[in-house]
């Protein structure tokens, strides 16, 4: 690694990582982090896979991850990283300088994506596939991008991760409940299918493990799940659990366990990044709010009132602050309160989980475990196919998996 | 129950509860709560034993609990309850009016206790056993009080619970590490033994299940533990986990599980009740602070800085507010923060746990399970003989016990 | 006052207080408080007129206030006070019991009001003047109610205070910019005029000092102000400053004074009373949000971002909690933060100000000072005719007034 | 200023600034800030003298300030600034790089100071004047340092500012209540006199305007004040008001003005810089805690309970977080609460005030206004000779001064 070029330690250890939304905050921070770790500039704090017992698994090394992706933003990865440095202070100037070459190289591997049905996420100046293309052609194009990348870099395995902007919720998703229905819709050029579904379909159909880091529809459709089961491709989602919801999933079980009656749980999130701007749009926020809200309803079925707000506060840049107010009743009808604030750099919380998830679905794929990956539930606000929302119990499932495969 | 007299539903279901510190905040609230539940005036919110899966156990009914105890305070139980009503609003006027007769009756069963080596907890006007009495005589007197109560009320089982003021820490507790050493000390009139040890010894030696709700020495001594094992008497402690420490034990595992590096965790407690006043005295606070501090050190072995403060703020009465500030580092060395405040009525949080613990050690006793009760770890800040401080995992032990015995 | 009947100390000191919205939270708490003070059951904490230098003014005594009013709610004042006691703990049981007779007597003096153009504030079961009545007839009816009350109780002076639910904002208020235009509209049966304007017009035209405690249109109209000036009737408003906005008006000047650049000031209010429910309706909230927002814009003209949210959280009852997050920049572009939470009983904060305002406009009236009362600016979120929002400076105006008239 | 050398705009505008504690956090940030402003790299946010109405005064320009000082720390100004950049992120890398040459030049002008009676502030490796020197000789040496600097840089005026570590409180300061007593003590080699007094005496006696930015004794002595009055030298102090106390002085008047009864005001400060470490030492903290506490006692004479804690939390570096909990009572004995947290970079808050104060005492000196400067009260926690602690009123005095002299 002497010459500043991104290069994995060993050919056998090279795993491709295809990021849909590759120039976004989360993607950029993931790439910067992976390269900074590879270059020995930073530690692995924040990565679940670098801590016992998960670290005992035989996982693809971080310095062997080879990045590519889709995006619709005209700005380069380097420019995006510089903006994060200037606005958030993360990454710091030194780290960015050291990985700038890597970023430039990776930026060349970012292809133009599709933005059908992406709502407010799509700005005027975005570069995207022609909206008039037939759905099937779009899918073929995406698939082609995956394959070209895999071949060019001679990768044995390619993991696709959706870290693109949150899409508006899809109306009546049940119509795509079977593989058959979904594939028919693609063939019949159904104009309702959103971009996230096309990226996901192309990944699963091509045999690439897939992670849905966002609240977008993607792999939640019955048709996708059936396809993944049939083709034995591991996938998991949705909506990574990084901040307020993470805290909720750790705290709510305490109220439940002590039989305390939560009367109201108010959550108010303010954040200043592009994700915040997109979520300020009501249509795009719907999925997010519902995945955030479900956690409490599941852990505290008797909760009286449960609201989540997300507001855009430009000066905060990538910093997200949540204020939660919990009004509860205890013994002898005594009313009590807990409040918390959480102040985190949103993408610095998310990025290590992207790397964790890539490594863990690659591990499942290597061992031939296809379909949904419930042992990854702790990473998501709305883990597909898993009812358990208690963070501690979700983690125990991951630890059991680690014990079984060590 | 038509005539306002305290009376259990059924003779077979009568379990004695002997409270050491029977006129304190926690004791009063426990008695008021139990009687209010018995009279159908309030629900059982806050009681772990009233929620699945623990509620499936065959536990002594709340309305069958018969209360008595020791104290050194001259003020009656009724007067104490009235002060709590006036200062804290808990219990409310209506509830207190309805149980006032029960309290008066129970107050007659409170005997004068010993206060040797109790430090700042002992005020001028307290009524207590003569300090010049020989230790053995004090033990005999206490034992006698237990038996008289049991016989008079024709109780099959008597559970002793220490809810007295926190004592100063005992120097060199190792000298009482065996039953032999402890009994020799009692016989040889060792003037260092504190009251909590005498109450505990008398309970265990008399075959009465015992709960140490306080940070005081009591059943932590090796000698007591050996005795309890030999006599097969169930006991557990110490220092009930009701507020800030409870939250810590639910939250700290989240930081650990996500491999986030906690650099500093500052905890500042302010409270206005007598417990707060006693803990303002440094000697008496030592045990409390250490049991509070251990939780974090255990769950987060790499923690950088961990401090707990307890301050006395008279206007708060029984309300305790904790402010915790958590400074942690994540991916790419990003510094982030979480803060919380917790505002609870201290004794309203503690009281339901007193009832839970009475019921659960009675259950163990009924089934012949003597010695320490690790399944009760979730109730304590410093669970004797248990290393696990993660609240969720501690609860799982209780749930496993419930499954096994349902 | 031996027999539980409401009766002023001395005939000369009797001042009538006509509350529009007389069975609401604020009105009820004002009446309960005034009567509790009159009966020596509570102190005058929270009343600005009971503290130097304002207390040196020759003001009507609290025990000489005689209450009456309009409302459209079917529930009695006693029932309303009982609900406040049960839900909020304020007033306490003892106080309410002692003034219950007074409340019942006052309730008989509450007349049915008009609810034209009151939007969401008007529920199905409300009792109100027939909406088909001509505007002029409604005004006459209201005026008649004022006079009848004044005569029946032989009052020298009657102060009218609007404490009714917030109305939706009036569109194009400029059309009523002159007395002439307003009176023509009344005569021509203009169906756009909202209830608050009718109550206010009737008061001012009848020569009764008037206070607009709410954000509703009332005395903000140019036409009303011209009339009050012409008739020399004192009046002031609008929207009493009791909680979050009060804090803002004390804190924002600190940032300004130190030349710190506020980039974002987020305010999030949650409350559970009927006012909260009404404000949850967007139309009714508009006026409130704008008067709350103006304070910051005025004190911090360079503020970057300024948002206020009001959410309805039923379990809080009359308790309002505000969380404010202030993101500011200092020397060397250093970003810093201040946050606060404010937890107050909304009507307990408002009620003493109602009494203060009644006494102070009565004082102005007695001295022949008609028109707007800028010395009362500190009481309002949007003081009519006053640009100063700095709480400390607003108070200085009141103190100057007190010095001049002592 | 093309060549990176520190150079004032114009000879006539050159004002000397002698910082006692010139390598400390506050001093470093003041120097960095002044030079960054001079070089056009940053704005003047945070400077009171750069905002109307104070900015209308004819003040010495920031780019004309020429820095020198005393310290006992072996580490250079550049090293200190680098540590601040690395630990706090302030100053940022770019700014520091641009002023590094200036810092190096200024560092050469820092002389070794005295550290008599400085307690815990003096570490092993500090370089300081021999403690065996006679007091009079120390004073002469200091005076000489001032003069040499003034002459070498051809400065018309030199302002001395104490920004050294907080000293332990002086016992029985009354013995130095007159100029006579003080000068006798110096001549008679009184070993109790602390360093701050010697620096101050030398300044005032030499005719140099003086600012006591710290809680140390310095110019609070009667003897010093008499001397300054006699010699007509302007001086002011003590203990700059930058964080929690500033907020208190803005908020407490609100509670007073609304006649709300503050029952408890708890303040808990955590900070990680050297000032925090020194204040962790009880002797050194005494003065600080008392000047912080006085503000509330003065504004809220009826306050029930008022405590301030300062704790050292290393990971926070120069960031200070205060949590304040205010428990107050309002109308009808209703208990309510306000809480705030304040998170600021301690020295970034202090530094602009150092520049403000230098400019403002220079202004007074220029106009021949000697002695205490009450118009500067708003800058201090314990303004000498001023009883007013209400921030808004203190500011009004400054604004009046500005109006008078514009
Ligand atoms: N902590 C977190 O940051 C976090 C946690 C959970 C989920 N998420 C989700 O991760 C996603 C990314 O968040 P972010 O902060 O990086 O957002 P971002 O706005 O910074 O980045 C999104 C990127 O996706 C690109 N994009 C948008 N539509 C696209 C499309 N159709 N095809 C290809 N690229 C497209 C955008 O151009 C942008 O570069 C969001 O959906 C967010 O909700 C983030
Ligand atoms: N949430 C909680 O309230 C909580 C949580 C954990 C532990 N605890 C512990 O429970 C204990 C009781 O707390 P509290 O708030 O009821 O305190 P309290 O001061 O109100 O009551 C203590 C009672 O013990 C009595 N007492 C003191 N020394 C005694 C002795 N030697 N023998 C008999 N009686 C004695 C006192 O007279 C008093 O009535 C304390 O040790 C406290 O630390 C309380
Ligand atoms: N701290 C505070 O409580 C506070 C502060 C500032 C302003 N205010 C304002 O004071 C007003 C009253 O607040 P509240 O909490 O008492 O509300 P509330 O809903 O409890 O009471 C309002 C009362 O007005 C009555 N009403 C509604 N429309 C009416 C009409 N057209 N004529 C006569 N009566 C009518 C309702 O029936 C109800 O009894 C609101 O406008 C509120 O915004 C309150
Ligand atoms: N917001 C603030 O930072 C703030 C506010 C008010 C007051 N203050 C006061 O300002 C002072 C400086 O704060 P800081 O954060 O810069 O502290 P610091 O510890 O960073 O700096 C103090 C400097 O003084 C030097 N020093 C100590 N004793 C000395 C002596 N006898 N002679 C000469 N130099 C000596 C030290 O070597 C050090 O370089 C403290 O007294 C502090 O209480 C600071
Ligand atoms: Na209650
Ligand atoms: Na910055």
UniProtKB/TrEMBL annotation, chains A, B, C, D:
InterPro entries: Myo-inos-1-P_Synthase, Myo-inos-1-P_Synthase_GAPDH, NAD(P)-bd_dom_sf
Domain Myo-inositol-1-phosphate synthase GAPDH-like: 243-347
Gene Ontology annotations of biological process type: inositol biosynthetic process; phospholipid biosynthetic process
Gene Ontology terms for molecular function: inositol-3-phosphate synthase activity
SUPFAM superfamilies: Glyceraldehyde-3-phosphate dehydrogenase-like, C-terminal domain (SSF55347), NAD(P)-binding Rossmann-fold domains (SSF51735)
Matches recorded under Pfam families: Inos-1-P_synth, NAD_binding_5
Family affiliation: Belongs to the myo-inositol 1-phosphate synthase family.
PANTHER family tied to this protein: MYO-INOSITOL-1 PHOSPHATE SYNTHASE
Name the record gives this protein: Myo-inositol-1-phosphate synthase
């Amino acid at each position: 690694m002497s010459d500043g070029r991104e290069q994995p330690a060993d050919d056998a250890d090279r795993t491709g990582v295809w990021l849909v939304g590759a120039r976004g905050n989360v993607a950029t921070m993931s790439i910067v982090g992976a390269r900074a770790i590879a270059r020995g500039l930073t530690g692995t704090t924040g990565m679940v896979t670098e801590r016992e017992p998960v670290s005992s698994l035989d996982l693809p090394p971080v310095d062997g991850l080879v990045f590519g992706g889709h995006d619709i933003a005209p700005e380069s990865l380097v420019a995006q990283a510089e903006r994060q440095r200037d606005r958030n202070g993360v990454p710091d100037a030194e780290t960015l300088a050291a990985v700038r070459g890597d970023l430039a190289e990776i930026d060349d591997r970012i292809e133009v994506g599709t933005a059908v049905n992406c709502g407010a996420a799509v700005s005027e100046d975005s570069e995207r596939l022609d909206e008039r293309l037939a759905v099937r052609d779009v899918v073929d194009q995406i698939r082609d991008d995956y394959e070209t990348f895999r071949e060019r870099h001679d990768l044995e395995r390619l993991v696709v991760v959706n870290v693109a902007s949150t899409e508006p919720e899809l109306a009546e998703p049940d119509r795509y409940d079977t593989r058959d229905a979904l594939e028919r819709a693609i063939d019949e050029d159904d104009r309702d299918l959103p971009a996230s579904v096309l990226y996901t379909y192309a990944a699963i159909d091509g045999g690439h493990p897939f992670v849905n880091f966002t609240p977008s529809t993607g792999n939640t459709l019955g048709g996708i799940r059936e396809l993944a089961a049939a083709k034995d491709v591991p996938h998991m989602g949705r909506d990574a659990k990084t901040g307020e919801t993470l805290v909720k999933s750790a705290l709510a079980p305490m109220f439940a366990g002590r039989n305390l009656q939560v009367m109201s749980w108010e959550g108010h999130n303010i954040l200043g990044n592009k994700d915040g701007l997109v979520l300020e749009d009501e249509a795009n926020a719907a999925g997010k709010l519902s995945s955030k809200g479900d956690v409490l309803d599941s852990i505290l079925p008797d909760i009286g009132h449960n609201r989540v707000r997300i507001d855009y506060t430009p000066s905060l840049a990538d910093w997200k602050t949540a204020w939660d107010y919990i009004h509860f009743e205890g013994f002898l009808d005594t009313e009590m309160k807990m409040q918390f604030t959480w102040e985190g750099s949103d993408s610095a919380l998310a990025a290590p989980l992207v790397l964790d998830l890539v490594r863990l679905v690659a591990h499942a794929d290597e061992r031939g475990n296809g379909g949904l990956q419930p042992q990854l539930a702790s990473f998501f606000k709305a883990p597909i196919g898993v009812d358990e929302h208690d963070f501690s119990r979700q983690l125990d499932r991951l630890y059991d998996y680690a014990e079984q495969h060590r």
